[in-house]
Structure formats: structure tokens, C-alpha cells
Amino acid sequence: MENTDTQNFQAENVSEEKVDNRTKKGFTITGWGALVLLSGCIGTMIMSTENPLYNVVLYGPTTIGASMVLYGFYCVFE
After folding, report:
1. 7-24 per-position pLDDT tens digit
2. Which residues fall within 8 angstroms of residue 74, CB to CB, at 6 or more apart?
């Protein structure tokens, strides 16, 4: 499948420095997202299920961390 003229034009106009910065930003966001996921996992294992904040600790960091990881992947692979 061939690239269209618009895709070739866009690829030629993106500077290498801009791509490097976006890739570095993506890896940084992905790393922080992984740490948020890990903290949510550890917090969930430490808490008892009777604690009223159990669901917040279980689903809050999981949602935030997974969103950060996906956005970081978007920045890396764009």
C-alpha cells in the first residue's frame, strides 16, 4: 500500500527534534502510568475488602494509570 501525497508531505515537514521530544514524552508518561498502576495494585493488596475506600483504590489508579500508558503509547508510536 503506497503512501498518499498528503502523508509524504506531512512526513517531510516534521523535524527530527520534534519527533524525539514527542517520543521522550511518550516514554516518560508511559513510565509514570506504570508506576500509578503498580501503586494501585500494591494498595489493593494491602487493604482489606471491608474498607469503604477499597473500590476507589482498586479502580481509581487502574483507570488513571491505564489511560496514561495508552496516551504514552500514542505519543511514542505516532
Report:
1. 555 556 667 888 889 899
2. 26
Task: Please name which of 7, 24, 8, 13 lies closest in space to residue 75, comparing C-alpha atoms.
Answer: 24
Task: Decide: residue 32, CB within 10 A, 0-12 exposed, 13-18 middle, 19+ buried.
Answer: middle
Angle at which helices 16-46 and 54-77 pack, to 10 degrees?
A: 160
Predicted confidence (pLDDT) per residue in 47-56, tens digit: 988 989 999 9
**Any domain includes 9:** no
Give domain status of residue 72, yes or no. yes
Angle (CA) 64-66-67 rounded to 5° is 65
> What is the domain count for the chain?
1
pTM tops 0.85, yes or no: no
